[in-house]
Amino acid sequence: GTTWTQEIVDLIHNGGDVKNSERAPTHIRFPFIEWIFPSVVSGLEQANEMPSPRILKTHLPIHLLPPSFLEKNCKIIYVARNPKDNMVSYYHFQRMNKGLPDPGTWEEYFETFLAGKVCWGSWYDHVKGWWEAKDQHRILYLFYEEMKKNPKHEIQKLAEFMGKTLDDKVLEKIVHHTSFDVMKQNPMANYSSIPTEVMNHSISPFMRKGTVGDWKKHFTVAQNERFDEDYKEKMADTSLTFHFQL
């Protein structure tokens, strides 16, 4: 969802200029502010070298976000995805990304995710924290499932939030260029430029399926029941709701 939204934002910013968006891979175009990797320039250094206005990436929960982002009234786009698909996607991502801990077996990872012992913390704390803050700050809260269901509508919403006006032709062009199948083939968006020892696409491609409901192929009946109980308990205190299938 993050990579998808980054590509959409870049194209809106460029007025739909596809060639401009192919100027560099995603991780070069968008500094990942908390990313530090030995012998590689850090996301923060990369951001500091860029002229304003900059488009940055973060996975931080709101309580760890640098206070200046909110103090300076930055525009923030947040993308939330239902936790079952999020778990499956994250599991396969951790299998192929050697910069992250080995997720172990699916059964082990299921427990790890439920306990919130994953990078960037508990899914529940993350989505609820940003949801609670969205009315106090300039935060556009998007849902992956809505983006899949009606990409044109959500891209239009994003453009308005960014203060850009797109005609229908440009909008359709962005919808096409940011569709899963097109992005999967785009070396500037599919992370294929990252060395194999860091991201091994033969284990699992970075752009794997991009669907809603793939969790059904992974969750056992018992796991699903257990997850639903946990979800009901942890989401009881919020107005935030998710769709687990389209």
How many structural domains? 1
Low-confidence stretches: none
Query: Reading side by side through the largest sheet, how are the strands ordered?
Result: 1-2
| CATH homologous superfamily assignment | P-loop containing nucleotide triphosphate hydrolases
- What is the number of beta strands? 2
Radius of gyration over C-alpha positions, nearest whole angstrom: 18 Å
Tell me the fraction of residues in β-strands, as a range: under 5%
Task: Indicate the multimeric state.
Answer: single chain
Q: How many helices does DSSP assign?
A: 13
Shape: globular
CATH topology: Rossmann fold
- Helix/strand-derived category reads mainly alpha
Description of the molecule:
With 246 residues, the chain is mainly alpha-helical. The chain has a single domain (2-61, 69-234), classed as 3-Layer(aba) Sandwich (Rossmann fold), CATH 3.40.50.300. It has helices at residues 2-13, 18-21, 26-29, 43-48, 67-71, 83-96, 106-114, 123-133, 144-149, 151-161, 168-177, 180-184, 221-234; strands at 76-80, 139-143. It has a two-stranded parallel sheet with strand order 1-2. The radius of gyration is 18 Å and the shape is globular. The model has no long low-confidence stretch (mean pLDDT 90).
